[in-house]
Amino acid sequence: MIFFFSLRRRRRLKARRLVFQNRDLKATLRRSLLYLVAIFVAHVGAMVFFEEMPAVDAVWLTLTTATTVGYGDVSAATLLGRASTVLLLYIGGIFVVAKVAGDYFEYRSDTYARKIKGAWRWNMTGHILILRTPLRNGEQYFVRLIRHFRDSKRFSEHPVQILTREFPEGLPESVRALEGVVHYHGTPDDDNNLRAVNVGDADVVVVLAKDESDSSSDGRTFDILHRISELGTKGTVLAECVDDRNRERLLKAGADIIIRPMRAYPGLIVRSLVAPGSEQIFENLFVSTGDAYARFDVDVSNTTWSDIVCALITNDIGTAVAYFDRGDGTLHTNPGAGDRVDAAALIVMVKAESRPSLDSVRHALRL
Fold first, then answer.
1. pLDDT reading at 288 higher than 60
2. Structural domains in the chain?
């Protein structure tokens, strides 16, 4: 346990050092540029004063000399003018130009490292923000979830940002390969981190349960939702809830959509956002109560799909959603109302607590 907290502390300090280092490099680059501008202005003034050059020629001479191009079309002729060039440009200017170039490339390199390691503030708007990483198989889960977002017409172009303490050396290549995906190294129980990922401007905020098998994760989720609500967000907030008894509390804390953690079905999150309310239908299929899919082996010949559906609903059997073709065994889901069906079996959504018998289905279809 001591080692675990020590490791987390080292990661946190490392991320902070990246931030401070980048600030120092930026300040150094700014000072070098100001020093270079001061040298250039002084040399231009010297050329105008000592050489009586037009300002345009003085600027031209300064730039070509400092960059070591030296066309020779304009040059200093007086002793004081030449001394000014030697002191300001040969001794000071060229060195500072080289230093500015070095500082710039170092700053760019450091900025790239910060972006990779999650220490960069992206200032996104209208993005998908995912808070926390699943306890197990986080990389694979993110790949599947983001692919579902990309396959959705509504979210296909949305940038994705992940706020997590995982991946301190950068997102795995499989996640970065999806493009438009970045992360910020931090935790969502820190207001500063939530501001850094622009939680208020996100189009969608997804709060994942840290451990899908531990109901205590709901307490952390409640705290995060409360923080998001205080900071304010324009987008839809979806939260995972491990214990159904906590659903109402999470809704009151600011969640718009509540779903159970289903790591094997990350697409459920996307479907819930595209069609709010549909998640309740999907969830009912994974519990012993509520709705369930049932298979009934019945022989149906040359009957329209609408007649089958109406017959089952009228007799309070359930809702037919698919059938197995009698010829090749292919499963057909959601057929057209006028499609003529030759079925060997039907898939029907029924009430799990009062599943109808096969005979009742045959009677409803008059078989």
1. no
2. 2-117 (1.10.287.70), 128-284 (3.40.50.720), 291-364 (3.30.70)
